[in-house]
Write a structure and sequence with these properties.
With 75 residues, this protein is of the alpha+beta class. The chain has a two-stranded antiparallel sheet. A hairpin with a 4-residue loop joins strand 1 and strand 2. It starts with a helix and ends with a helix.
């Protein structure tokens, strides 16, 4: 738990990044028993406009279901 907190404090990923981000590997440490990768979240240029649109719709007062319907209609 302590190691996970320290990595999160340093801005490194502990788990899978959220939608709209991708993982960028900073360092890969290969040991005899396991490989340890240190990575950080980076904005994913392909999905960033979708996330921006979701937040804009939410700011306009559209609910979760309305946002889902709107996004599904647009493909």
């Amino acid at each position: 738990m302590k190691g996970m907190k320290q990595r999160a404090h340093q801005g490194h990923l502990v788990f899978r990044p959220p939608f709209g981000y991708r993982r960028e590997i900073i360092e890969r440490q290969e040991g005899p028993k396991r490989t340890r990768t240190i990575s950080k979240p980076v904005v994913n240029d392909r999905t960033a406009p979708i996330v921006k649109r979701i937040f804009e719709l939410f700011d306009k007062g559209v609910g979760y279901k309305g946002i889902a319907v709107t996004l599904n209609q647009d493909g």
